[in-house]
TrEMBL record:
Its cofactor is Mg(2+). Residues 377-451 form the Alpha-D-phosphohexomutase C-terminal domain. It comes from the Bacteria. Residues 8-135, 157-257, 266-372 form the Alpha-D-phosphohexomutase alpha/beta/alpha domain. This is Phosphomannomutase/phosphoglucomutase. InterPro entries: A-D-PHexomutase_a/b/a-I, A-D-PHexomutase_a/b/a-I/II/III, A-D-PHexomutase_a/b/a-II, A-D-PHexomutase_a/b/a-III, A-D-PHexomutase_C, A-D-PHexomutase_C_sf, Alpha-D-phosphohexomutase_SF. Keywords: Isomerase, Magnesium, Metal-binding, Phosphoprotein. Belongs to the phosphohexose mutase family. One of its GO terms (molecular function) is metal ion binding. It comes from Streptomyces triticagri.
Length: 455
């Protein structure tokens, strides 16, 4: 295994690549050994999704760690947030085998330290990669004399009970909810989490199938929620919920089949979490969530903190500030009461509780959080990311009434609009997000920036 190959699969926050072309069980075993060494743990927890390659990769990783004398608890099939639950509740470093919404031939590892603390490039992943590269070339160290024990443990019921203990759904009115699991891990977790709640559940694609026969398990792509939207309308349901492949993100659809923006969900949940915490607390939001998020946080008595895009930045800011909640435009939602980790399931329970706690439809409930016109994220393929970004910066620098900052890419803010332009870390793309007080202004700013980007 050459160094160049590992550079293709070790990303900023996780390991991800095609199996067996880019990595396989022999490499997974080395990752397990390296994970054991870098964390210094005496025991770890390992789980996996429904992809065909996941059980074998997960077991190889476990054997690699056990060879170093580490005890391994295997929780088997689970969602990513269920693995975070196990890491938090058992206070053990954890590894989740999943490639989230990527196609079937992909797989990956999301790793964390005890208490679900993230492992990324700057927090251990670079060291793990260096060890795997070294051992792939020269051979792994000999196993210790007494290998660690590998045992199985069931955590689904405990995970579900923990979530239900954080949101009171006992007094809500009955709701009809369509859930599209996309043949991913939501099909495994939803029946247990929703059990006993006053919900008429209409399941879609709950069969676990890592080949994703119905649609890609990425609900942020509008093409992948078309089935859900139609089913919500056909069923006369109160709402629809779609989960991604490893069920750590959720996307919400209202009773008309219209998508509810993740910023509106962030604002709604932020208000509820602030109320639950006595009307005060810090809420994290990344810099491309809607203006409505910090507004609602302030209106609810909280303190909004703006951060870069990406879960490692959000989780670090959560820890540094003692924040009670964090949300991203990508439908990742982070909770202090969930070890600062992201869980789409807990966000979904908050939406159900908010909707079921009043009589109006979801579209009316979220309208108060949907205050501005947004472009959504627009990707442009460019040969020279730096050059095109510099051209945009030059066009807006020095204009009266504008502020520019470079917390993450370039953000330009006016009284009635803002945009952010960021370069992709992995592809030759520039990503544009625009928001304004009205649609005409948003479209004008969007078109002006795109003309510069695509010149």
């Amino acid at each position: 295994m050459a160094v160049a190959d590992l550079s293709q699969i070790v990303k900023a926050y996780d390991v991800r690549g095609v199996v067996p072309d880019q990595w396989d069980e022999s490499l997974a075993k080395l990752f397990g050994a390296a994970f054991a060494q870098v964390t210094g743990a005496e025991a770890i927890v390992v789980g996996h999704d429904m992809r065909p390659s996941s059980p074998g990769l997960s077991r190889a990783f476990a054997r690699g760690a056990a060879d170093f004398g580490v005890s391994v608890t295997e929780i088997g099939l689970c969602s990513t947030d269920q693995l975070y639950y196990a890491s938090g509740a058992l206070d053990l470093p954890g590894a989740m085998f999943t490639a989230s919404h990527n196609p079937a031939q992909y797989n990956g590892i999301k790793m964390c330290r005890a208490g679900a603390a993230p492992i990324g490039q700057d927090t251990g992943l670079a060291e793990i990669r260096a060890l795997v590269e070294q051992w792939a070339e020269s051979g792994a160290p000999a196993p210790v004399a007494t290998p660690g024990e590998i045992t199985a443990r069931e955590t689904l019921e405990d995970y579900a009970a923990h979530l239900r203990g954080l949101v009171d759904l006992t007094a809500i009115r009955p709701l009809k909810v369509v859930v599209d699991a996309g043949n991913g891990m939501g099909g495994h977790t939803v029946p247990t989490v929703f059990k006993g709640l006053p919900l008429d559940l209409v399941p879609m694609y709950f069969e676990l199938d890592g080949t994703f026969p119905n649609h890609e398990a990425n609900p942020l792509d509008p093409a992948n929620i078309v089935d859900l939207q139609k089913r919500v309308r056909d069923e006369g349901a109160d709402l629809g919920i779609a989960f991604d492949g490893d069920a750590d993100r959720c996307f919400v659809v209202d009773e008309r089949g219209e998508g509810v923006s993740p910023s509106a969900v962030t604002a709604l949940v932020a208000g509820r979490e602030l109320a639950r915490n006595g009307g005060s607390g810090t809420v994290i939001h990344n810099l491309i969530t809607s203006w409505s998020v910090p507004e609602v946080v302030r209106e609810s008595g909280g303190t909004p903190v703006r951060t870069r895009v990406g879960h490692s930045f959000i989780k670090q800011e959560m820890a540094d500030t003692g924040a009670i909640f964090g949300g991203e435009h990508s439908a990742h939602y982070y909770f202090k009461d969930f070890w600062n980790a992201d869980t789409g399931m807990l966000a979904a329970l908050h939406v159900l509780a908010a909707l079921g706690g009043q009589q109006g439809p979801l579209s009316e409930l979220v309208a108060q959080y949907d205050r501005y016109a947004g472009s959504g994220e627009i990707n442009s393929t460019v040969a020279d990311q730096e050059g095109r970004a510099a051209a945009v910066r030059e066009a807006y620098e020095g204009r009266d009434g504008l502020t520019l900052d470079e917390l993450d890419g370039l953000t330009v803010t006016a009284d009635d609009w803002w945009f952010n332009l960021r370069a992709s870390n992995t592809e030759p793309l520039l990503r544009l997000n625009v928001e304004a007080r009205d649609t005409a202004t948003m479209e004008r700013v969007r078109d002006d920036v795109l003309a510069l980007v695509r010149a």
